[in-house]
Known about the structure:
Strand content: 5-15%
Number of domains: 3
Radius of gyration: 25 Å
Number of helices: 18
Number of strands: 20
Largest sheet: 5 strands, mixed
Structural class: alpha/beta
Bound molecules: 2 iron/2 sulfur/6 carbonyl/1 water inorganic cluster
Oligomer: single chain
Amino acid sequence: LITMFINDEPVQVDRGTNVLEACRANGYDIPSLCYVKNINTAGSCRVCIVEIEGSRNLQAACVYPVAEGLRIHTNTNRVRRARRRVVELLLSEHNRECTACVRSQNCELQQIAHKVGARYGKLANQPVHEPKLVKNPFIVRDFSKCIKCRRCEAVCKNLQGIGVFSPLNRGNETIIAPAFQRNMADAACIACGQCVLACPTASLTERSYIDEVWQVIEDSTKHVVVQTAPAIQASIGEEFNLPVGTVVSQKLAAALRRLGFDSIFSTDFAADLTIVEEANEFLHRLEKGGPLPLISSCSPGWIKLCEHFYPEFIPNLSTCKSPMEMFGALAKTYYAEKIGIAPKDMVVVGVMPCTAKKFEAARPEMKTYGQRDVDYVLTTRELARMMRQADLDLNKLPEEEFDQPLGFSTGAANIFAASGGVMEAAIRTAVALTEGKAMGRLEFKEFRGLRGIKEVTLALQGQEIRLGVAHGANNARKLMERVKQGEQFHFIEIMACAGGCVGGGGQPITSNPEKPELTPEYRSERAKGLYALDLNKELRRSHENQAVVKVYQEYLGEPMSKKAKEILHTHYTV
Ligand code: HC0
């Protein structure tokens, strides 16, 4: 530790940190728009400027190292005037539609403008960029709201190891975009939406389908089925000021019913179904000799990463559709038949923590008997917006149950949304299937936690099997490079976002400038809620889900049957 002085107060700070971190650690709320600890240290927005004794110019606190005896001032007239002027310059070319903006009230620029007392005044200008939206099925880029903080660029490169964005053009014509201004759908972007989480304004947002969903809900000729992903129940509470990781499954069901959906189901049901199929696929590949490793295919960001960077491993991908897609396919076949509705009159809406699920739903591979499996995907944030539009406050709703039969799940499904959860669920079932009555072990805690790559060796069917789990695109690439070098694995789970789906790009965004939602610790709080759900369930192995058993008895026959393959499986091509 060293001693420095903030506004003449002596404080002890870690050697090697920067002035901004030192101030924040000591209760000084220095504003900043570009800095994100461990991810972005661009020093570009200049909002965090402070006065440093002995230095003629004001200095950006985020890139100024602390030193023994350093004396800084955060609250002088000079600092306040300069900060205000910096923010006014940003506002001078910023889109002015704040009242109608999707990030209104959790926009960091708006908050900082308010804090520093910025006005348009003499600097009022025409925004440099018209509100020109660059659209694709998953993310919308609006350059008129970009403040060039370059957080999106840093998150994509440093957190995910992809590097889709870079600055193009010069001066105030600069934009942060994929090379040659390609649409993100045509670049190596994996649609994970981590850039959306990092964006301090609404320059990057999900492609919203709220209006389309309201429309089908009101259309009396349509039966609208909603499914919510495992992660939603442990994260949507944040949108209603509940502590991170609060599980609100029953209130969520009540909200969905009041929004007007006709059938209220959960993707967790299909997660159990996926495990039954995938565990059988794994055992089958083990017996037949491959292709191994079997690699999970339920994270659409990972699928896109694989297609861009590891096309030679496409045959290794599980042919199981993701639970979201299996759910949609089964809803429009089995369930539609059961309730006597023509598949064309059924609309399936998925609520996902993920922007890439919007991309997945639009993929041509995700159709069954010519029909799209999932029609619209909403993020956690969009569902919360719909609830607010409908005057629904999660805190005031009663607790209700999901509908049956596609609303029942075991504990194994609940943990899907945490890194290692799919693997743990699959191994629970694979071990029970191969060990017969003994049922084997239930918990495999070695797959849990924040390590970027988790490796485990287990005995299965008298054979040593090597299992790998990677989360975050960066770690996925590290693991795949090892596989490419010939390292042996039998089964690999990959999730494109750090922490797994709990850290998806469609999850709640805070207006906290420290961006806690990008940190592993925050994401693991969400995961804790899901592990607690699993622990309290009576049934904790996917194949014990009686609704799943019934689907096989009444409709699919057995795992990997011809019908199961037609409905629940797909193939990717290079
Ligand atoms: Fe996930 Fe899924 S666990 S990808 O993160 O497998 O998005 O929550 O819905 O499909 O179930 C996301 C979460 C899902 C799917 C499931 C899987």
